[in-house]
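Hi Y.,

Following your request, here is the sequence exactly as I used it, all 252 residues.
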Amino acid sequence: MIDLRTSLKLLPVDNIKMHESFQPTRLEKTMSAILNEKVLINPIVTTRINESDYMIIDGVHRYLSLKELGFKTVACQIVNEVDAKLNMWSHLVKAGKSLKAITDKNLIKVENEINNKRFVFKITDSKQKTLYFYLDNDKNIMNFVDAMHYVVARYDCTCFTRVSQMNKSEIDEEDVLVEFCDFNLKEINSLIFNEVHLPTGVTHFSINNRLLNLKIPLKFMESNISESDWQGFIQSTQEKLRYYPESIYFCE
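Below is the corresponding structure, written out as C-alpha cells. Let me know if you'd prefer a different format.
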C-alpha cells in the first residue's frame, strides 16, 4: 500500500515546473470548479527533477488555478520516474485537411518516412495517406518545439480531440490525424531548464499507483495551516484508501 506520508506533499508553487502550455478556457473552467467545490479532487502529479524542483506530469490546469487563486503551496503526489511512462497524444483535427498544405522554410514535407531520421509530426487523412514533416536542422530540440507550436497554432484548440491510439480507417472525410514525434524525459528536463513549453495536450504520462478522488479541502493549502492538521488529514485519508489492480476503462 502506498504511504501518503512520503507520496503526498504540500509543495511551494515556485518549485513546481511546467513542460507544457495550457488552454485559457480550460483554466477558467478548472478554477471555477475548484472555487465552487472548495476542494482539490485529485492532487497534482509530479516527479522530482533536482534537489528542490518538481515537474508536473499531470494537472497543469489544477496547478495554475491554485496559483492564480493565491495559494503558495499546493497538494502534490510525488511519483518516482520509473512509475511514469511518457507517451504522446495525437490530435484528431476536425475539418483539418488544409493542414496538409502547410509549408515553412524550416520544414521538409515528404510522402514517405525517411529511415534513421526523426520526423517532427505527420499528418494522415481519411484515405490513409500520410505526409511526414522533418526539420532542415534537427540537431536542436528547440527546433522541434517551435515546429510543433507552428502546426498546433494552425488549428483551434476547440476543434481537436486527443487520442492515444486510433485506427486510421476511422478518420472522417474532412478530418486529419496529427501525430507528434516522441520525447524522452531527458529532453523534457532540458525544456524545463530553458523555460520552454511544448504545445498544450501533446504529452501524456501513464502513471502507476496514481492517487484519485482524495478531495483535499483548500484550507490545507492555506499559509496558516499547521503541520499537525495536515498530518491528521494524511492519516485519515490513508485509512480510506482502496487499491484496485484491475485494468479499467474510464470515460472522460
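Helices lie at 4-7, 24-37, 60-68, 141-152, 185-193, 227-240.

Thanks again,
Q.
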